[in-house]
């Protein structure tokens, strides 16, 4: 359980604050055990696994009942979440009759009592947002689907047994990486951060991708990233969104951490120039090396297709090559790829780096951005945040108080309710102003900290931000 | 094999009466005229030039054997040399006296080796003791000596294009003195010595005039020396050594063309290519001196293409009155009766033909495998456009399809030339604009050669048909289009709208909307109103195109009306109103459009809001909320 203790004020009493955490996560299919006494068959996955069987059956049954019951009010939109004092449950039916349920314990404050009485617990029922955790559940499914294909696929090839095996294998590890306490608006968006680049360098990257795909015709799709930001995706948007999430929150941080930790300059210097496969063999020269790459599933014209995922990195540039999974990736192929891609990618990476520093220099000295904002475009999933620090494998740090993040989430919910363009300005506690703007498919959230500012000044300030940061898009004032 | 002959004789040769005991044939390199002199002129002189205008026939008195006969430029005055001491002149200007007049050479005991016209009335006598430069006065029927130069001469060569006479001097003959003639002036260019393969002992004339020729290649004057293989040296074959003769400054040995064989050779220059004919093998070689082998100071070059013979030629029988049953007779190529003249003339005196040698480009495509080198070669040829375009098509389609890096190289080479032309054009336009006082007169309008292959050429002849070709993977089509756009961008050439349209069409056809989206996101496809409209039309199949289009219109900053139209058509009346206010055009916008759109929504509140907004505007502008009938 994630524990977050905050000394509150200077009083004698020590309050303990508990962030939201995962209580249960289960997947079931009511059609698998419709008869009484066979209820256990419905359960395909249950976390934590050590929960007693009857309790599992009871919990699943309850969810089933709630979903059934709420259907009577709105047959097309069954319940999405259930709010209770202690926890909140999220329901999601990704494929017909397959339900994923996540139970999150509400954040709470433990107040010690005098005279050895047990502490009082206050649950903060309203502190968590449906949109954020609903998105987390959907993300769980997308990630499973990326690496395993839809549930239906496992059912077709190996029946329930195979599906249960796959779910166990995937979610056992995946749930450990969920950090529910740091989920926020960005999880709702599930956006992609794009690397800003001049046209010529972009065309060079295009040229590189096309040439590699031509000479290594096994490669079906390519994605190109720099500094953990996307530059080119040959995959369709939805698949790229999930793959991007995997790359930036799991694969890249896993490989960059040793460098970050190392304080030795020379080590860092060397590691910058190392070319390597982030998936597959660690060392091509190793005679024992195994040429196995993770397989991913992406949408295709006739359902989905299975691909090998080869991620190759040179300096800060990473290229993902996807190859039809029915083909065996051999040592020869990897060597060929290494020989062809290595030099070109290194050259491109230094080109991009050069361009990047030129741009930074021309746009003035690097200063702490005056504005804290989050931008998201539903059309291309482009997201930009000056609120979030660099993501690491374990946590995603924000530079603002969770209360402000909650306000952002609330505004987002308001936006979701209507189609019209809107603007919402909120005066938060302390000196903060929070501004939300929605124009067509774009959303912008700004946090301003200006003492004694009034509404008009805040509005002017946001206008100025739009004029400097977003002058090349159609964004209504 | 038949398609591999990259040299051919011109289809319509100049025909003349072949040389015989009664008919002497002369050729004048300056006017490119063939003189057929029958019986010393008494039974007629027939002059055939490259076109009918320059063809003349006349009679003159037989005053002895004609040694040399040439018209001055423009056929004004005829000069005839019959003795080694003098030259006779006949006026061909109407209304001038036609009687001959004679000029003897001034230098005593000198004998005239020949003469050259340098203008319509200036002539140079070359004698064994020097040169004499005269001006002819046809009305007075006399000549005036302008300049003379004393020097021992073995033989001479004349390059009419540059009016440069090259004199062979010294005992061995290998010290060459070029003289340039211009407007009555003679200027001595720097003298140079040709290295002989063997130095004879005792000294004797060792450099033959047959082995030396002058020609302009890529606008520069060169002396070409055919250096025969010597048994003593270990050179594998004969060479052509090129000496560059700049207008000013010293002459420099610039290129060595390796012939890799021995025997009898003859030289031509065609389309700035050096053509070397080899008689015993009946083949020819071509060299392009601009194809650089950058290693050594003296550029040693191998032939561009493998040796091939000139395309077989058939002589049509009896000229115009062709008898159908009689097939044309094959002409014997590389015949020993051939004479070769600069730059591109081959004459068969015994058969009575003058041909121009021509380069056929299509066969070179097959013979030159390296496409980059092929492009370099083709881009420097005169009639190259269609061949280059066909090479472009060829590398994109069919069995000869090239790989992307090759395609990229070809595009880059084309665009380099295209860019150079655009820049020249631009600086010319700038010079014209800055007024006639400064530079405009000195700067010539750049000539657009065939090698300038612009986007519309590429689109019409290559890309549009290629992109519609069945059986070509769309991935390759898109890659090629992007490569072309990349190349244009690399040379900072503005990409034309129709290329973007082609990219979009191809992407849309294959449902690659996300790719299109990414291209637009990185502004790879430049903003323009037509492009924005095209995107707008895609909204039905790809909704995000709406946003992309609006963004583009916004960036154009000249399309505010279009933005309002788009928003109103989407019933985003308030949005449209807010937009028009933000760009400060609220005051002079027509209220009717907005009110119409508001009414169509059926939202009364909205209509009221819009109406009030315009009333307030009217109040502010005119002091009354009422609408002006005219502006409304």
Automatic annotation (TrEMBL), chain A:
Domain CCZ1/INTU/HPS4 third Longin: residue ranges: 367-465
Top-level taxon of the source organism: Eukaryota
GO biological process, one term: vesicle-mediated transport
Every CCZ1/INTU second Longin domain range: 219-340
UniProt GO cellular component terms: Mon1-Ccz1 complex
Residues annotated as signal peptide: none
InterPro entries from the UniProt entry: Ccz1, CCZ1/INTU/HSP4_longin_1, CCZ1/INTU/HSP4_longin_3, CCZ1/INTU_longin_2
Residue ranges of domain CCZ1/INTU/HSP4 first Longin in the record: 23-149
Pfam families: Intu_longin_1 (PF19031), Intu_longin_2 (PF19032), Intu_longin_3 (PF19033)
PANTHER family given in the database record: VACUOLAR FUSION PROTEIN CCZ1 HOMOLOG-RELATED
Family recorded in the similarity comment: Belongs to the CCZ1 family.
Protein name according to UniProt: CCZ1 homolog, vacuolar protein trafficking and biogenesis associated
Automatic annotation (TrEMBL), chain B:
Domain Mic1: residue ranges: 381-628
Signal sequence segment: none
Gene Ontology terms: cellular component: late endosome membrane; lysosomal membrane; Mon1-Ccz1 complex
Pfam families according to UniProt: RMC1_C, RMC1_N
Chain ranges of the Regulator of MON1-CCZ1 complex N-terminal domain: 25-143
Alphabetical GO biological process terms: regulation of autophagy
InterPro entries, sorted: RMC1, RMC1_C, RMC1_N
Protein name (database record): Regulator of MON1-CCZ1
Source organism: Oryzias sinensis (Chinese medaka)
């Amino acid at each position: 359980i994630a524990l977050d203790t905050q000394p509150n004020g200077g009083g004698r009493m020590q309050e303990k604050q508990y962030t939201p955490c995962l209580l249960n996560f289960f997947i079931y299919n009511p059609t698998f055990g419709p008869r009484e006494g066979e209820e256990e068959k419905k359960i395909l996955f249950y976390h934590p696994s050590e929960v007693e069987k009857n309790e599992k059956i009871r919990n699943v049954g309850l969810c089933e009942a709630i979903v059934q019951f709420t259907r009577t009010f709105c047959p097309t939109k069954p319940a999405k979440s259930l709010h209770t004092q202690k926890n909140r449950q999220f329901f999601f039916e990704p494929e017909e009759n397959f339900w994923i349920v996540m139970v999150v314990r509400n954040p709470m404050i433990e107040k010690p009592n005098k005279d050895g009485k047990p502490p009082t617990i206050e649950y903060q029922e309203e502190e968590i947002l449906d949109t954020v955790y609903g998105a987390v559940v959907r993300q769980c499914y997308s990630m499973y689907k990326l690496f395993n294909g839809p549930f239906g696929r496992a059912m077709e090839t190996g029946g329930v047994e195979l599906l249960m095996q796959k779910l166990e294998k995937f979610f056992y590890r995946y749930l450990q990486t969920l950090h529910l306490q740091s989920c926020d608006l960005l999880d709702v968006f599930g956006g992609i951060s794009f690397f800003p680049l001049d046209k010529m360098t972009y065309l060079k990257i295009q040229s590189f991708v096309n040439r590699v795909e031509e000479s290594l015709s096994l490669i079906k799709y390519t994605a190109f990233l720099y500094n953990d930001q996307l530059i080119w995706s040959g995959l369709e948007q939805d698949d790229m969104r999930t793959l991007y999430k995997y790359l930036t929150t799991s694969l890249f941080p896993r490989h960059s951490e040793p460098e970050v930790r190392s304080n030795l300059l020379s080590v860092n210097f060397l590691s910058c120039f190392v070319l390597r496969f982030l998936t597959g063999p660690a060392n091509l020269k190793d005679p024992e090396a195994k040429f196995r790459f993770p397989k991913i599933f992406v949408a295709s014209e006739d359902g989905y297709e299975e691909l090998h995922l080869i991620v190759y990195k040179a300096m800060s540039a990473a290229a993902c090559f996807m190859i039809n999974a029915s083909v065996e990736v051999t040592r020869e192929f990897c060597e060929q790829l290494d020989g062809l891609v290595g030099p070109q990618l290194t050259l491109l990476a230094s080109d991009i780096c050069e361009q990047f520093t030129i741009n930074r220099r021309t746009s003035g000295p690097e200063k702490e951005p005056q504005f804290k904002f989050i931008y998201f475009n539903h059309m291309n999933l482009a997201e930009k945040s000056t609120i979030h620090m660099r993501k690491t494998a374990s946590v995603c740090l924000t530079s603002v108080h969770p209360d402000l993040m909650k306000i952002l989430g609330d505004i987002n919910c308001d936006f979701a309710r209507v189609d019209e363009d809107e603007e919402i300005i909120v005066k938060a506690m302390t000196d903060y102003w929070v501004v939300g703007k929605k124009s067509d498919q774009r959303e912008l959230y700004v946090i301003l900290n200006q003492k004694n500012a009034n509404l008009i000044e805040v509005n002017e300030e946001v206008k100025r931000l739009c004029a400097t940061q977003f002058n090349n898009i159609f964004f209504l004032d | 094999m038949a398609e591999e002959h990259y040299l051919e004789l011109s289809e319509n040769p100049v025909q003349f009466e072949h040389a015989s005991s009664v008919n002497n044939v002369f050729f004048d390199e300056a006017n490119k005229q063939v003189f057929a002199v029958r019986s010393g002129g008494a039974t007629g002189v027939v002059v055939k030039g490259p076109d009918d205008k320059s063809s003349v026939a006349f009679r003159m008195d037989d005053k002895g054997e004609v040694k040399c006969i040439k018209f001055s430029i423009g056929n004004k005055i005829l000069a005839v040399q019959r003795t080694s001491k003098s030259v006779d002149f006949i006026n061909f200007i109407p209304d001038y006296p036609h009687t001959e007049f004679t000029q003897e050479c001034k230098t005593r005991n000198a004998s005239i080796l020949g003469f050259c016209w340098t203008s319509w009335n200036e002539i140079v006598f070359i004698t064994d003791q020097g040169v004499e430069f005269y001006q002819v006065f046809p009305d007075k029927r006399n000549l005036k000596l302008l300049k003379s130069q004393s020097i021992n001469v073995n033989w001479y060569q004349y390059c009419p294009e540059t009016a440069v006479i090259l004199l062979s001097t010294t005992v061995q003959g290998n010290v060459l003195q070029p003289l340039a003639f211009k407007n009555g002036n003679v200027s001595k260019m720097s003298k140079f010595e040709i290295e002989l393969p063997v130095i004879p002992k005792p000294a004797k004339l060792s450099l033959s005039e047959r082995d030396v020729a002058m020609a302009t290649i890529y606008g520069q004057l060169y002396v070409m020396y055919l250096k025969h293989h010597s048994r003593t040296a270990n050179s594998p074959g004969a060479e052509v050594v090129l000496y560059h003769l700049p207008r000013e400054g010293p002459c420099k040995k610039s290129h060595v063309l390796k012939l890799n064989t021995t025997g009898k050779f003859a030289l031509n220059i065609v389309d700035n290519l050096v053509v070397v004919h080899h008689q015993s093998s009946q083949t020819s070689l071509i060299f392009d001196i601009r194809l650089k082998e950058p290693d050594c100071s003296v550029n040693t070059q191998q032939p561009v293409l493998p040796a091939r013979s000139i395309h077989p030629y058939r002589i049509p029988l009896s000229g115009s009155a062709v008898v159908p049953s009689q097939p044309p007779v094959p002409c014997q190529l590389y015949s020993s009766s051939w004479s070769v003249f600069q730059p591109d003339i081959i004459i068969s005196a015994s058969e009575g033909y003058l041909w121009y040698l021509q380069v056929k480009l299509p066969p070179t495509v097959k013979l030159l495998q390296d496409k980059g080198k092929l492009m370099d070669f083709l881009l420097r040829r005169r009639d190259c456009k269609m061949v280059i375009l066909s090479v472009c098509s060829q590398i994109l389609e069919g069995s000869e399809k090239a790989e992307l890096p090759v395609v990229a190289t070809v595009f880059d080479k084309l665009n380099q030339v295209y860019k150079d032309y655009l820049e020249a054009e631009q600086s010319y336009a700038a010079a014209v604009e800055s007024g006639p006082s400064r530079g405009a007169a000195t700067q010539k309008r750049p000539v657009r050669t065939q090698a300038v292959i612009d986007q519309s050429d590429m689109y019409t002849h290559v890309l549009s048909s290629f992109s519609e070709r069945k059986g070509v993977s769309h991935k390759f089509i898109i890659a090629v289009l992007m490569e072309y756009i990349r190349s244009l961008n690399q040379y900072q050439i503005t990409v034309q709208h129709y290329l973007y349209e082609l990219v979009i069409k191809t992407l849309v056809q294959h449902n690659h909307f996300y790719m299109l989206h990414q291209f637009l996101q990185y502004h790879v496809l430049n903003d323009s109103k037509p492009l924005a409209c095209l995107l707008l039309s895609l909204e039905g199949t790809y909704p995000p195109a709406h946003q992309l289009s609006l963004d583009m219109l916004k960036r154009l900053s000249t399309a505010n009306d279009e933005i309002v139209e788009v928003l109103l058509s989407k019933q985003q009346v308030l949005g449209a109103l807010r937009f028009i206010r933000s760009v400060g055009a609220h005051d002079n916008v027509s209220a009717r459009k907005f009110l119409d759109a508001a009414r169509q929504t059926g939202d009364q509140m909205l209509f009221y809001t819009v109406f009030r907004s315009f009333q307030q505007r009217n109040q502010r502008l005119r002091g009354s909320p009422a609408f002006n009938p005219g502006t409304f």
